[in-house]
Amino acid sequence: MKYFLVIFLMLFLISCKQKSENYTHVILYKDSIYTANIQYINTPEKALISGYLFAYGNECIANSNKNKCEILYELNITDECNNDHVSFLKKWFKNDDLMQYKLRNCPNLPHNFATQNSIKKIVLKRSSDTLTITIKASGMNTIQEKFWTIEKTDSYLIKDNSFIKIN
After folding, report:
1. What SS3 state is found at 85?
2. What pLDDT is attached to residue 2?
3. Which terminal Cβ of the chain has fewer Cβ within 10 Å, N or C?
4. In terms of DSSP H, where are the helices of the chain?
5. Which run of H or E residues covers position 143?
6. Has residue 8 got a pLDDT over 70?
7. Residue 125 reports pLDDT greater than 80
8. Among residues 23, 26, 24, 22, which one has the least CA distance to residue 136?
């Protein structure tokens, strides 16, 4: 009986460790896209990255070499306005009113819009059921001649195939 209990506890500990995911993946840094890291991401990470690209980047057009477009390509998203993709994002961000609002219009920022954003950095960190994204984007409004840089970090709890923002 003792041996059975010891084996059971060992298997339990091993299975708990396998389910716990803890890592940091640099996706984009200094105009370099780390495609090897993109290959290892799961569905929640794909949703978070593509959601933030949607929110902070301009529309992709054919043969665009923008970081956003190349990352979407690596994520196997050929059209971010595809109904399936928009529905996918709406499901994952169902608790985020701002994202739901942005997802009403696709694209969020057209490629020829006066406001042009460029994604500069994306880092994902996963700690069990918490996913954190750091994103840096720079932009300009060509009509008003205004420039900006945004760098922010947001964390989400992954629950029932959706995100709950925790900061």
Report:
1. helix
2. 54
3. N
4. 2-19, 35-38, 43-56, 67-74, 83-92, 97-102
5. none
6. no
7. yes
8. 26
